[in-house]
Design goal:
By secondary structure, the chain is of the alpha+beta class. The protein contains nine helices and 16 strands. The protein is globular.
Length: 370
């Protein structure tokens, strides 16, 4: 299986300018592709393939107006066009929403690097049109690194490459683990393991409190420097916005690290199979009272990590049907309690069986793999 290796880069100021240039060109090429697809659709044309668009982009480069595209690697624009076309194909198959244009302010700066031209040595990486860049650690050598991507997380630059790994041959237990994810607790497992909601911890609450203060401060500064209908961004506004960006980064890292610890703990029990719910997160987010709490749990990331860690140890990973009544079904007698409310945290069945609501759902999920 292919596992990604993410390593921090330590570019010089000149190299960092080149990285920002490549990220900007990648964003521009992606947006240009979307605009061409929309323009072609409005004129009644068929879907434009990435090959056609790349040829059109090559002709644009030869004009004086777009000569600046030669300052970056050709593979940056090539892959950005392909990514936009793939996003449209997924939209046509109803797998995702319609692709949106990438904002300069909100989108994550990232770009693709050609696998053939990527060279790795001890502690340094050769990037096309950038040069040899120092790295915090050595990237594992491989015959071919798959899908190298360079990204900026708000503070540091990183390179992520896929490296081929052999699947670990481990002796798995017969145990099947059902996992019920939610808001009160991140995950409740059928074997008794419970992983808390990290957003209720003192560390996260302290960061969120600091974040709210800075957001109010920057809002006041914008109002103070308002000129007519325009808001002037002063140096102090830039400083506060940078602090806000770093706090968002810290919150993301805390939550992602907690999910890594939870999924790794489950995988270390070496279950033969793991069963989880297939939650309608998009529908759950429409509840404005719970949307913030649901977003903070990063449930999609939990499923993604659990899936590849099961594959790594050779365990089976399955997801129950979206409409499977895991919470309403009695794990003892099999009777469905239709009047169960979200506020009912204890499941009480007519047969006299009483159990925690989340544990009941986890046990029902574990039975699906038997």
């Amino acid at each position: 299986m292919i596992l990604a290796k993410k390593v921090r880069l330590k570019p010089t100021p000149e190299q960092e300018k080149s990285l920002w240039r490549s990220a900007g060109v990648s964003r521009w090429a992606y947006n240009w592709t979307l605009s061409r697809q929309e323009e072609n659709d409005q004129n009644g044309g068929n879907f434009l393939s990435d090959g056609e668009l790349r040829k059109e982009l090559t002709k644009l480069k030869q004009t004086e107006e777009y000569a600046w595209l030669y300052d970056t690697s050709n593979n940056v624009t090539k892959q950005a066009v392909k990514d936009a076309c793939d996003a449209y194909k997924k939209f046509f198959k109803r797998l995702t929403d319609k692709p949106k244009f990438k904002s300069r302010k909100r989108s994550k700066p990232a770009f693709y690097h050609d696998t053939e031209k990527l060279k790795v040595k001890n502690g340094v990486v050769l990037l096309e049109k950038v040069g040899w860049v120092k790295a915090s650690e050595s990237i594992p050598e491989s015959e071919k690194h798959s899908n190298p991507r360079i990204s900026f997380d708000g503070k540091y630059w990183y390179i992520s490459v896929g490296v081929e790994h052999e699947t670990e041959i481990t002796e798995l237990h017969v145990e099947v683990i059902g996992i019920d994810v939610g808001i009160k607790e991140l995950a409740v497992c059928s074997n008794g393991m419970v992983f808390r909601n990290i957003n209720k911890s003192a560390a996260v609450r302290k960061v969120e409190k600091r974040l709210r203060r800075l957001q109010r401060r920057v809002s006041r500064k914008y109002e103070m420097n308002k000129e007519g209908n325009n808001f002037v961004k002063t140096c102090n506004v830039v400083k506060v916005e940078k602090s806000i960006r770093l706090l968002h980064r810290r919150l993301t890292n805390i939550r992602t690290n907690h999910i890594h610890q939870a999924t790794s703990t489950i995988a270390k029990t070496k279950p033969s199979a793991v069963v989880m719910e297939n939650l309608n997160v998009r529908g759950m987010m429409k509840n404005h009272h719970l949307s913030k709490a649901i977003a903070g749990q990063k449930l999609h990331e939990f499923v993604r990590q659990m899936k590849y860690k099961c594959e790594k140890i050779g365990a089976t990973f399955t997801q129950a049907d979206k409409w499977f009544p895991s919470s309403k079904l009695c794990s003892y007698c099999g009777q469905i309690k239709k009047g169960l409310k979200l506020s009912d945290r204890t499941y009480e069945c007519e047969c006299g069986f009483t159990i925690d609501r989340d544990m009941n759902a986890a046990i029902n999920l574990s039975k699906l793999a038997i």
